[in-house]
Amino acid sequence: MTTLDIASHRLSNQHIAQSPFKKSSEVVSWLGAVQAQDYLGALWAVGLRLRNATEADIERAIADKTIVRTWPMRGTLHFVAPADVRWMLALLTPRVMANSARRHAQLALDDAIFARSQALFAEALWGGQQLTRKEMMDVLEQAGISTDHQRGYHILLWAAQTGLICCGPRRGKQPTYVLLDEWVPSGKHLTRDESLAELAHRYFTGHGPATLQDFMWWSGLAATDARAGLEMAKSHLAQEVSDGQTYWLASSLPTAQDASPTAYLLPAYDEYTVAYQDRRAVLNPLYAQQANYRYGIFNPTIIVDGQVVGTWKRTLKRDAVIITPTPFAKFNNAEASALAIAAEGYGQFIGLPAALHQ
What residue ranges do the domains of the chain occupy? Predict the structure, then answer.
């Protein structure tokens, strides 16, 4: 298996190339989780893996509770399927919360503060209430709990990681928060071993080919747990070796063959770029600085034939969206034409004609 094969399989297995999915919930469930701290980018991350989806379709899925936005892994917002929220939180958040203990001590946040905050949030959100972040902070401040110096953020994160709250639909441009038990009243109940096996299976089928180290990075699991999950799941996976590295992937998925060149405009923090510890299969290290893949920052990227070949940004006008690409090297005519097709698809998603500004 060559590096180009790895990229091609990932495009296919992530269903960026020729997706069969018609529902947001299918995308999120297949991938296990979709990184979602950049809200508008995350809508596109789901939408580009669907047939003829619009931004409104993905927001409707959030409002209809068929996908849920919360903090299941690495202290980072993700979309997950409702049935998966609780077992993922139970499996993945204790390690993140333990690693935050020093910061909590610096902020004078202790068990008593967290317990009191939980009670305040539960009372304020009871009965289907949806509050913005500012309103959640006001609840704390009015009770004498300071939210300065990121205290409010860490209290909010704790409430989500313990399964009290999750994100609801937007109110205007502001996200809201809701009680998880009211928003998603049921879900899978898995043992720890079942959770490890399920997470490993989802990751390697939805993101493969990938290594054990990639899975550890994506999930935030300790090495022992990640190995255990892979060991339990590997009978349902295929194994390939490339350049001395062992890769795992779904055992029976056909690879979609795009015409060459085919371009995609991926959002910031897309699973195709962010979900791997080693990204060299899709990004030449010579371009890592230009892609700004440092310090946890992942820019929107241009993909041509599976490779990151540039970055892009959008400018919204009243009657159009302007796409400004920054290629690492000049596009040839065929690549420029492929990029124009990708831009048109993005414009259709947000409901505006797209124009390339080069």
Answer: 3-183, 263-356
